[in-house]
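Below is how a single chain appears once it has passed through the pipeline. First comes the sequence as given, then the structure the pipeline wrote out for it. We keep one example in the README because the format questions we get most often are answered faster by looking than by reading.
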Amino acid sequence: MDKKIGLKEAISIGIGGMVGGGIFAVLGLAVSLAKGGTPIAFLFAGILALITSYSYIKLSQKYPDRGGTVKFINQGFGKTIFSGAVNNLLWISYIIMLSLYASAFGSYAPNLLPLTQSKSIDSHIYSSAIIVLATAINYYSIAAVAKIESYAVVIKLVILISFVFVGAYGLIGNPNVAQLAVSNWEAPIKLFAGGMVIFVAYEGFELIANAAPDIANPEKNIPRAYYYSVIFVIVLYIIIALVTVGSIPFSEIAKAEDYVLAEAAKPILGKIGFSIITVAALISTFSAINASLYGGSKVNYEIAQDDELPHHFLAKIWGQPIGLMITAVATLILVNLLKLESISTAGSIGFLIIFGIVNLVGYRLSKETGSSKTIPMIGFILSIIASIILINQQYNSNTIGVLISIGIIGFCFLIEWVYKKTEK
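Resulting structure:
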């Protein structure tokens, strides 16, 4: 008999999924958008994740399946063009997340070991190399992926929690604490938009859904796993944001936007602190790439099994689904074509729409799941409003990111429509 997953392991799946490369990749971007109100931006994004986790809890308990989100969407809408398009959007959002993690790895790595005279060239070399390495590990052994992830979760949490305690102590007497004053906050709508651009830092809690069939005592442990992991990460992110904004001037944050967490460790721990956080970032982003490559190829396989992608995607190369190779190649292309903000925007819009639709499924199936209709409906409305605000705010400052996001959504629907028509 397979060993069941206990509460601790289930919580670590949620925390590991969220505290992947997200916080290292988007913290500088969050500060550039929300300034002194960055902790509030993280709170806004966290509240939306917490509301959405209610729908995930009810659906995970009623329909436990390793397909997770893919199965919930099919349960709510049947196997239609709409559900197929949304599931394809989920797969592409995984690819976007992988690009975000690889981009963060490429931003941190040259600080430890520069390869050329140009940081930009170094960044692309490292981003590409880490995708190739993680793909090789996924082909070599799935057990190795799980082992790397279990060690990485512990290492990154120990380093981040130490950073929080040491950093909070270092704020005493630091003149930059004044940057957290309300007078340095952006307007509420901009704070909310800032929170939504970095929403990708929270999306990983949905991985608990894939583990739901294996969780022991699901009635008690599934709700606890979701709520404890999301609340823990909200608190962790808010404190990290407080420490970062209170430690170094905005001008320094802007200069080190792509590796700001390492820069924030400098005032307290000097060059050693910078190096420790850089190593934590490299371990975190590498483990996130490893796990997301595996997750992305599984999502792709599930969609093909549900007849929402051609059955060619059920074929295997070197013992793994063909989706693993396609996911890796697509990630390589994206990370070398797009800037960090465009990747983050596209990922956040993708997951806001997917979570909005999962909330809508929660609302539609509330009778079957024995849940409240109100909470999923609030989650759905907030996700849609958040998407609109994010698209509107980013359209002025990051038009390419918005156009790519809308293009991806249109492409998912078009591909699914063409597939369903030709299949008939």
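The two ends are 41 Å apart (CA to CA).

See the next section for the split statistics.
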